Amino acid sequence: MKVFHLSVECYPVAKVGGLADVVGALPKYQTKLGWEAAVVMPWYDRPFVRDHAFSLVHEGTFYQGSELLSYGVYKEDHQVLGFELYLIKIPGKLDRQEVYCYPDEGEQFIAFQHAVLAWFKDKAIVPDIVHCHDHHVGLMPFLMKYSNDYNFLADVKTVATVHNGQYQGWTHWSKAILLPAFDSWKWGLLEWDGLINPLAALIKCCDAYTTVSEGYLEELYVEANGLQHLFYDERNKSIGIVNGIDWEIWDPKIDYTLFENYDVVQAFSGKLKNKEALAKQYKINPDRPLLVFIGRFATEKGADLLPEIILDLTEKYRDRLSIFILGAGDPAIQSRVKSLVDDGIDNFDVFFGYDENLAHWLYASADFLLMPSRVEPCGLNQLYAMKYGTLPIVHQVGGLKDTVIDLKNDGYGIGFDSLTITEISAAIVRAINFYDSKKQFEENQRKMMQLDFSWDKSAAKYISLYNQIM
């Protein structure tokens, strides 16, 4: 059986967020379970592409509106990621460095999908499943069923995964001329609130849709940036499947990025050695518990609350805690965080930007991970943290609520229900007090590290879904 995953992100080729981690892992584990899994994504001028061998396997052309576009399909030669990887290159459209933020990105995404369809037609490729990740490839099920040139794919089953329902790819109807010719009687499947809405089209036209946690699926029925009624109406073809983590990359026992590797038995001492090494480069005290935030500076992630949280904690608990932040994003948030660094607060440091190796090192060094997210469809950071023996302190929403059970409920993390500085600080103080109970804290570290959030389970659920719809 053959499944093609279509996405604009895939780790380690191009990563902006958790979408890349999922697309970089799920196909590998599906391959291990006997499926032929492949990823198709845009070509990027990035280190992975430059450093690995690719072969041109197909060339072709198509019209996007009145513009004739040439495209090439490049296949990675050695399956270094554990699955087939194809890159679509279109000069002037899909040959850039960044994934997002270009003024014509809507046209880029249309061109990407059109090129995939043209390639399938030219090479007579008829997969068993086409798995579409988020709105960037949301037009595929519609075009497979109702476009004049590509409806030979009409019987191919399609699965949609909603990684974040807040972003929907809204496009003015003037852009409809850029789409492959389609049955105009079906235009309503593209429309939502007077615009072409690729995410809405994806949910309407796919054979099944998934969200990246059960909790997030329930939340989409209530609030989905205007699509909540659609998600609810189409609920009979929905399922929530929690993301997994790739234990070949995220395992402190074999993680080559760490100062000191460790397993369940040496968890506390191994983490302390990593923290001590971290303290030689950054302004933290290795003798105190370390709280970290890793993520985008965005209100969605609750990052706008960080300055107040830091001020509150450093004023009241200066002698009991170190804090480290790894992130970048909203300039206003970043400026406020930088001002705290400039103030020279003790036992507090920041790395602005994103560094994958440093992220691994922080998970291995930290005692607590803070996630004050307003929206978190699944969340991977808390799963990485627990695998590394780091206690997550989370807002109980979406996938965080599904995966982090509070200590008071015989769990292994700490949750809070409202995004107030008082409640967040109280949750952190609970964590500090728990840290002081060394025996129980170390037992909880070992408990977290043995939880099974592997992709083996999640990949099997996706394959079960594929079999159901086929």
From TrEMBL:
<feature type="binding site">
    <location>
        <position position="15"/>
    </location>
    <ligand>
        <name>ADP-alpha-D-glucose</name>
    </ligand>
</feature>
<dbReference type="GO" id="GO:0009011">
    <property type="term" value="F:alpha-1,4-glucan glucosyltransferase (ADP-glucose donor) activity"/>
</dbReference>
<dbReference type="InterPro" id="IPR013534">
    <property type="entry name" value="Starch_synth_cat_dom"/>
</dbReference>
<keyword id="KW-0320">Glycogen biosynthesis</keyword>
<keyword id="KW-0808">Transferase</keyword>
<dbReference type="InterPro" id="IPR011835">
    <property type="entry name" value="GS/SS"/>
</dbReference>
<feature type="domain" description="Starch synthase catalytic">
    <location>
        <begin position="2"/>
        <end position="230"/>
    </location>
</feature>
<keyword id="KW-0328">Glycosyltransferase</keyword>
<protein>
    <recommendedName>
        <fullName>Glycogen synthase</fullName>
        <ecNumber>2.4.1.21</ecNumber>
    </recommendedName>
</protein>
<dbReference type="GO" id="GO:0004373">
    <property type="term" value="F:alpha-1,4-glucan glucosyltransferase (UDP-glucose donor) activity"/>
</dbReference>
<feature type="domain" description="Glycosyl transferase family 1">
    <location>
        <begin position="275"/>
        <end position="448"/>
    </location>
</feature>
<dbReference type="Pfam" id="PF00534">
    <property type="entry name" value="Glycos_transf_1"/>
</dbReference>
<dbReference type="GO" id="GO:0005978">
    <property type="term" value="P:glycogen biosynthetic process"/>
</dbReference>
<comment type="pathway">
    <text>Glycan biosynthesis; glycogen biosynthesis.</text>
</comment>
<comment type="function">
    <text>Synthesizes alpha-1,4-glucan chains using ADP-glucose.</text>
</comment>
<dbReference type="InterPro" id="IPR001296">
    <property type="entry name" value="Glyco_trans_1"/>
</dbReference>
<dbReference type="Pfam" id="PF08323">
    <property type="entry name" value="Glyco_transf_5"/>
</dbReference>
<comment type="similarity">
    <text>Belongs to the glycosyltransferase 1 family. Bacterial/plant glycogen synthase subfamily.</text>
</comment>
